[in-house]
Amino acid sequence: MSTKEERERIELLQGTLDLLILRTLLRGPAHGHAIAKTIEFNSDEVLQVEQGSLYPALHRLIKRRWIAVEEGTSENNRRAKFYRLTSKGRKQLKVEISRWDKLAGAIARILRPAE
User: Fold this and answer.
1) What domain range includes position 100?
2) In CATH, what number is assigned to the domain containing residue 66?
3) What is the pTM of this model?
4) How far is CA 2 from each of CA 8, 9, 14, rounded to the nearest angstrom?
5) How many domains would you assign to the chain?
6) Which of 56, 51, 46 is CA-nearest to residue 36?
7) pLDDT tens, position by position, 63-104
8) In sequence order, what are the residues at sequence separation of 6 or more whose Cβ sits closer than 8 angstroms to the Cβ of residue 72?
9) Which of 77, 45, 60 lies closest to 10, judged by CA?
10) Cα separation of 57 and 51, whole Å?
11) CA distance 86 to 106
C-alpha cells in the first residue's frame, strides 16, 4: 500500500470518529471521557474509543473550528475540559452525515446487490 493510500485509509477512520464526536456533542457540551463513554454506550459497546484516538480527534476538530473547548468542573468535582459544538461544527455535521449516508449506501449496494 502506498503512503497516499495509507493516509486516505487513516482519514476514513479518523473521519468516522470525527462524525461520532460531532454527533455526540449535538446533545450539549461534554468532557472527553463522557464523549467516549457516550459513543460506547450508544453503540451497545461495539465501538470502543481509546484515548489515543479520541484526543487527537478532539484537537483536530478544534483546529478546524468545528468544536470549542472550555475549562470547567466535572461531575466528580475535578477540573476538566468541556468540548462543545460550534455553529460551523453543526453545519459540518450535516455534511458529514450526508457523506456517511452516501458511503453506507454504496457499501450496502455492493454487499447486497439487487437480484
Assistant:
1) 3-111
2) 1.10.10.10
3) 0.83
4) 10, 11, 18
5) 1
6) 51
7) 999 999 999 988 888 899 999 999 999 999 999 999 999 999
8) 29, 31, 79, 80, 81, 82
9) 60
10) 10
11) 30
Between vectors from CA 52 to CA 6 and to CA 29, what angle results, nearest 5°? 115
Q: Determine the Cα–Cα distance for residues 84 and 68; give it in Å rounded to an integer.
A: 5
Stated as kind and residue range, the H or E segment containing 71 is: strand 67-73
Residue 75: which residues within 8 A CB-CB, separation 6 or more?
none
Residue 14 and residue 63 in contact, taking contact as beta carbons nearer than 8 Å: no
Residue 95, C-alpha cell as written in the block: 455534511
For residues 82 and 69, the answer to whether their CB atoms sit within 8 Å is yes
